[in-house]
Amino acid sequence: xxxxxRRAGVTGPASAPAVVxxxxxxxxxxxxxxxxxxxxxxxxxxxxxPAVGKPRGGATDAGKSRSRALASGIISSLAGKxxxxxxxxxxxxxxxxxxxxxxxxxxxxxxxxxxxALFADFGLGNGLLTRLARLHGTGERRAxxxxxxxxxxxxxxxxxxxxxALLATLRWVPWPELLNAxxxxxxxxARSVVLLCFxxxxxxxxxxxxxxxxxxQQQVAQSNLWQAGGSLVSVALVYAAVSxxxxxxxxxxxxxLAVPVVNLANTVCYxxxxxxxLRPRPGLVAVPAARGLLRLGARFFLLSVLSSVVLNLDGxxxxxxxxxxxxxxxxVVLRVFALLTLFxxxxxxxxxxxxxxxxxxxxxxxxxxxxxxxxxxxxxxxxLPGAALVLFGNDVLRLWVRSxxxxxxPRPLFAALAVWSVLLAAAAPLFMVQNSVGLLxxxxxxxxxxxxLAVPLKIVLAARVGLSGVALxxxxxxxxxxxxxxxxxxxxxxxxxxxxxxxxxxxxxxxxAAS
Length: 515
Known about the structure:
The protein is mainly α. The protein has helices at about 5-10, 60-100, 100-115, 125-140, 140-170, 175-180, 185-205, 210-215, 220-245, 250-275, 285-310, 315-320, 325-350, 350-360, 365-400, 410-435, 440-465, 465-480, 480-505, 505-515. It has two domains: about 1-25 and about 35-50 and about 305-515, no CATH class; about 55-280, no CATH class. Residues about 1-55 and about 505-515 have low confidence and may be disordered. This is Lipopolysaccharide biosynthesis protein.
């Protein structure tokens, strides 16, 4: 899903990491539910798979349907994100006037802590998306039900345990002091705000799985519509609470509880009517499925952490070498370019389940045709505004920040960040192919090499060149480490799947074996 992965635009739903490398030669016994009837034994990135000599007869029709779903998913993602970006712009002035500066700051401080816990599902959501998309392609509905039930069970138990730990420690942790609440009235609300924000976050962990389920079924537009609805409900509830003069804590509750409530409604509607065969049931929770999800999810989790360290280390290094004012200026410029990579994430995330379904069907032609197109689309769409920022970036910052404290930014800094953004955009579709089959090792190697090269190079160039040197080091190290890993992993994923097709017995072999 990522960004951290969101900055990278390659690591997954909303979060998801850039994802891992070569799959094992054969999946451990029980890692996948039993395949559908038919010859087995062909090697693939997923272990034992139903034998497939050629893509299914309806591959052309399926490819057209998949392309339509991808296009609608991209458009709905962009529209939904516009609503998601507009919601905070509407909520902020309402909440700030109602809460006051200190209480609003308290809320934002707690929110930042929940943001640091984005990996709390340990990659299970991304693991479910990968496995469920494959099962959607092979038509193994019963196995898909076991995956869904096992994922909900594990995240449900984890959420309950973490919520119990929160309740048990809430009174003992000195939250008012930790959050530096000076006003006694604000300090009195500190624990309530912590409980609301962290409680909503934990409750939403299993509820948010519905987005992965819908993405895996290539119902991306439907998922995005619900998410946009959550943003609108949040605005409506805050407006209602403020206009009625509700207590300050209730205003915060209206803002933070809207998303889990809408996810709950989405879950009930989907499993109640549309996807009843996938409805989570206690009897379908399976240890092998849970073990496989944990194993794959753990790899996604570790990759998310690694890529996030690489992508978020610049501010710390700049602060140490050039001072905090320089770090602040760099952060402001980086925030502008983050909008470009956010677009890359939105455009490419629907590719993840689409690739998984296509590869499960043996439709390598669709993947080979679509991926280069998405590479070009992502790169061009980022390059155009990136070039505009190189030319007019300081004008944009003056209009946006409107502060004399922000010194003019050197044009080479804009240029280096624009190049880095284009590289991130070009790699994203390649990562989506690897994510779809759980092939993460090339990405691990690439991000680890990038970390080892980037840190000393950024320190040296920061001291000798300044801020532009840090961005230049980011682009250069990414180009020689992560980007080649993306290409190698992409080719490896297709080669593995192609080998599986050719090693599978064809129809003639099956008739001979039957006779």
